[in-house]
Write a structure and sequence with these properties.
Layout: H1 2-23, H2 26-64
Length: 65
């Protein structure tokens, strides 16, 4: 029972902190940073994959000559 009371108090503190943060634009900024970071990561991985395929094509062309 004491544990439940402590957990409830911790959740109340967490909710209060989230309310304070949510009124600011911090969540929007964090979301944007995560979004663009993931977008950049996927773009980089796609670039590496395409460049690897181009290298394979170049090697095949060299072999046929």
């Amino acid at each position: 029972m004491i544990r439940n009371i402590l957990e409830a108090r911790q959740l109340e503190k967490l909710n209060q902190a989230i309310e304070v943060i949510s009124h600011n634009y911090i969540l929007i900024i964090i979301g944007a940073v995560i979004f663009f970071g993931l977008k950049a990561l996927f773009g980089y991985l796609t670039y590496k994959k395409i460049m690897r395929q181009f290298e394979e094509i170049k090697e095949l062309i060299k072999e046929r000559k």
